[in-house]
Amino acid sequence: MAKYIIFFFLVFVSFQPLAHVENDFEEVMKDLNGNNFNCTDLTQNELAKTHIRHLAGGRSGAANERLFRFHFPESPGALQRFLEALNMKWNISLFHYRNYGDDFGRVLVGIQQNHGKECEGMNRFLQDLGYHYIEETENPAYAKFLRTKSSE
């Protein structure tokens, strides 16, 4: 199983620990931290594994941005239905679609809201959409890789 870490210079590293070396991953983390590289283990962070490692382009300083990860059935018209359900009054500050050829598609969406968490219609949209979603606004990988310091 691949392991994911972040260290001080905000470098996303993925590596396969040696199967025959006990505690290989832990030793690498210990060595990096011991050499003043502040590391974060992202092995269990689905946002980092599914989307962030594939993104390029910089950080966002969009005010009142909320980040959502959606899973929806990969069927004809599913992505179009998702896009049509988005309120055109909302500013879509980030959009990333991942198709692995699975039975479901993965979409990461940043939505800039004028009223913070009280955006008009957002809760209704999430409820009515019927797709599985996770809000990732508080995810540490989002803060480290996709947000500017001034927007945190």
How would you describe this structure to a colleague?
With 152 residues, this protein is of the alpha+beta class. The chain is 25% helix and 28% strand. It is built from 5 helices and 7 strands; from the N terminus they run ββαβαβαββαβα. It has a 4-stranded antiparallel β-sheet, with no helix packed on it. The two termini are 32 Å apart. The relative contact order is 0.20. The mean pLDDT is 79.
Tell me briefly what this model is.
With 152 residues, the protein is α+β, with helices and mostly antiparallel strands. The chain has helices at residues 24-34, 46-50, 78-85, 122-129, 140-145; strands at residues 3-7, 11-15, 40-41, 65-73, 91-98, 104-112, 132-135.
End-to-end CA span:
32 Å
Give the neighbour order of strands across the main sheet.
Answer: 5-6-4-7
The count of helical stretches stands at 5
Q: Report the strand count.
A: 7
Ranges with pLDDT <50 over ≥5 residues?
none
Give me the Rg, rounded: 18 Å
Order of helices and strands: EEHEHEHEEHEH
Characterize the largest beta sheet: strand count, sense, and whether it forms a barrel.
4 strands, antiparallel
SSE layout:
Elements: E1 3-7, E2 11-15, H1 24-34, E3 40-41, H2 46-50, E4 65-73, H3 78-85, E5 91-98, E6 104-112, H4 122-129, E7 132-135, H5 140-145
From the structure above, extract its key features:
152 residues; alpha+beta; four-stranded antiparallel beta sheet; 7 strands; three-stranded antiparallel beta sheet
